[in-house]
Write a structure and sequence with these properties.
Elements: E1 22-24, E2 27-29, E3 36-41, E4 46-52, H1 56-72, H2 80-96, H3 98-109, H4 113-133, E5 140-142, E6 148-156, E7 159-163, H5 169-183, E8 186-190, H6 197-208, E9 216-218, H7 223-232, E10 238-242, H8 245-255, E11 261-265, E12 271-274, H9 280-292, E13 304-308, H10 312-325, H11 344-359, E14 363-366, E15 385-388, H12 395-398, E16 405-411, H13 414-422, E17 426-427, E18 429-433, H14 437-446, E19 451-454, E20 469-470, E21 473-474, H15 480-485, E22 487-495
Parallel strand pairs: 7-8, 7-10, 8-9, 10-11, 12-13, 12-18, 13-16, 15-16, 18-19
Antiparallel strand pairs: 1-2, 3-4, 5-6, 6-22, 11-21, 14-15, 17-20
Helix pairs in contact: 2-4, 2-5, 2-6, 3-4, 4-5, 5-6, 9-10
The structure holds nicotinamide-adenine-dinucleotide (NAD) and manganese (II) ion.
Nicotinamide-adenine-dinucleotide binds at residues 163-168, 190, 192-193, 223-224, 227-228, 231, 242-244, 247, 250-251, 265-268, 299, 400, 402, 428, 466, 468, 472-473.
Length: 506
């Protein structure tokens, strides 16, 4: 890889390595036990590297480092302009090493070049966004009666434990780290064991850019053990979690014991509504991307497709035709549309859902099975799958599959579309394909979801709030709102009248 990169920190320059280390207090460290976890390339099934398998003592070390950095360090007291500059520097280093980051992300996730490029770019833009946003994040002078004066100030919450999933490894790490360190918080980040590599590299880049030791720490290991320990840890003030709804429930219960601040970005089963006046081809292409982007391993995947009965046949003919044209193969190729699944366990889970749909009487209209891809025979691949003849009460319509599987239903009018769309425990996102502005506004108002996409397959950019209603969690990321979630508001009320107050009048 690029030899042109100058050695500017004590971390290895080369991003591709046999063995990665955690970063605790600015140092590259192994687990105390020296145990490791093997990390695979899911497109090929090959082992690519090892990462440390941390245990509780390692978590203690990381929390202690973050605690020291927050309680006694300079970062939170540094001028906001300095923090902003460091965030921009992180982004600049990432830009310089863009292709290496993309390649590494693909190697560990099996996602396509197009997906990885978009996600690394968004990670970069996230740091740039918060570099700007933090400068304008401030308290207020509030209206109070006569001889009083009140101001509020925003203070960083403290040490944030951040736990992230495997589907967007570097992007999720950026979504978590950037707003936290912008406010002056310290971080202990735990990536998913399947995809820890780019989070480690990003943490190293943070140090290279000038983030002081202890402010950003990364630990790797099993979630059920060290994730739980982080959630229960007395030294942690806030937990920011992205992952499954069931894990989120467990985290919320455990975090309540120390009354930690909690934000949860959880699962989804997002509806994609195609109305009769929609641009048909645009709706087909957008719906295709909405489910098969990132191999369907996306929290905001539009995995329930609702098409108005008057255009159903026409829409489905095109949709099925294009789904069958999607190419699977070399993830590094610009012309590959769909990458691999993250693991064989995930392939099996996806396939169980497809089998359950068949058992409940639905029809597989495309795909429906694990596939062998030429040159990638030992990898984990699943054909882009369309299931028709579905009713909204079927398991496959209610539970998050988290793979390239879409279930399709028709609706007869606006009222039924809204009812079906909301008939789920989730509430992350929804897409509307239509031209009638009145209808778009009415439906947007009635849908219980944090993110509405109107005639677009894209759900968010840095600056747009991202988060769910109902059991998709709470809190918003990727936007100004996150800064409030990493800060406490302190109200300072002063009496500034001449004569001392004597409210008891004694
Ligand atoms: P997961 O819940 O299995 O794991 C997420 C992380 O939590 C991992 O790092 C894991 O090691 C850790 N973990 C596991 N058990 C834990 C426990 N008991 N306590 C603490 N930490 C624990 O999620 P996943 O399978 O990695 O990711 C897929 C899920 O993520 C999907 O449900 C998807 O919808 C969701 N997701 C949501 C968003 C969003 O913004 N709403 C974004 C991406 C992914
Ligand atoms: Mn999981």
């Amino acid at each position: 890889m690029s030899q042109a990169v100058k050695e500017t920190s004590h971390f290895p320059t080369e991003m591709k390595r046999q063995a990665y280390k955690m970063v605790i207090n600015g140092e590259a460290v192994e687990a105390g036990s020296k145990d490791t976890i093997t990390v695979y390339n899911p497109a090929t099934g090959e082992a690519i590297a090892s990462v440390p398998k941390a245990d509780k003592a390692d978590v203690d070390r990381a929390v202690e480092a973050a605690r020291q950095a927050f309680d006694h360090g300079k970062w939170k007291k540094s001028p906001v302009g300095k923090r902003s500059r460091v965030l921009n520097k992180i982004a600049a280093i990432m830009r310089k090493r863009f292709n290496e980051l993309v390649e590494l992300e693909i190697l560990n996730s099996g996602k396509t070049l197009m997906a990885a490029q978009g996600q690394v770019m968004q990670a970069i833009e996230d740091f740039e966004f918060y570099a700007g946003a933090i400068v304008g994040h401030r308290g207020a002078v509030n209206n109070v009666p006569g001889p009083f004066f009140n101001y509020t100030q925003k203070e960083p919450i403290g040490v944030a434990g951040q736990i992230i999933p495997w589907n967007y490894p570097i992007m999720m790490a950026a979504w978590k780290i950037a707003p936290a360190i912008a406010t002056g918080c310290s971080v202990v980040l735990k990536p998913a064991s399947l995809t820890p590599i780019t989070a480690i590299i990003l943490t190293e880049i943070c140090h290279e850019a000038g983030v002081p030791a202890g402010v950003v720490n990364v630990i790797t290991g099993p979630g059920a053990k060290i994730g739980t320990y982080l959630v229960e840890h007395e030294g942690i003030d806030k937990i920011a979690f992205t992952g499954e709804t069931t894990t989120g429930k467990d985290i919320m219960a455990k975090a309540s014991q120390t009354l930690k601040r909690v934000t949860l970005e959880l699962g989804g089963k997002s509806p994609n509504l195609v109305f009769p006046d929609a641009d048909l081809d645009g709706a087909v292409d957008g719906s295709l991307f909405g489910i098969f982007y990132n191999t369907g391993q996306s929290c905001e995947a539009r995995s329930r497709l609702f098409v108005h009965e008057s255009i159903y046949d026409q829409f489905m003919e095109k949709f099925i035709g294009k789904t069958k044209k999607l190419t699977l193969g070399d993830p590094m190729s610009q012309s590959t549309h769909v990458g691999s699944i993250i693991s064989q366990a995930q392939v099996d889970a996806i396939h169980d859902y497809v089998e359950s749909a068949k058992a409940e009487g639905a029809t597989v209209a495309a795909g429906g099975d694990q596939v062998k891809v030429e040159g990638y025979e030992n990898g984990y691949w699943y054909a882009p799958t369309i299931i028709t003849g579905v009713t909204n009460d079927m398991k496959v319509a209610q539970e998050e599959i988290f793979g390239p599987v879409v279930v399709v239903m028709s609706f007869k009018d606006e009222k039924e579309a809204v009812k079906l769309a909301n008939d789920t425990k989730y509430g992350l996102a929804a897409a509307i394909w239509a031209k009638d502005q009145g209808l778009i506004k009415r439906v947007s108002d009635k849908i219980q979801a944090g993110i509405i996409m109107v005639n677009t397959p894209f759900s968010a950019f840095p600056g747009t709030p991202f988060g769910g209603y109902k059991q998709s969690g709470f809190g918003r990321e990727l936007s100004i709102e996150s800064l409030d979630l990493y800060t406490e508001t302190k109200s300072v009320l002063s009496y500034i009248g001449g004569k001392p107050l004597n409210p008891f009048n004694l």
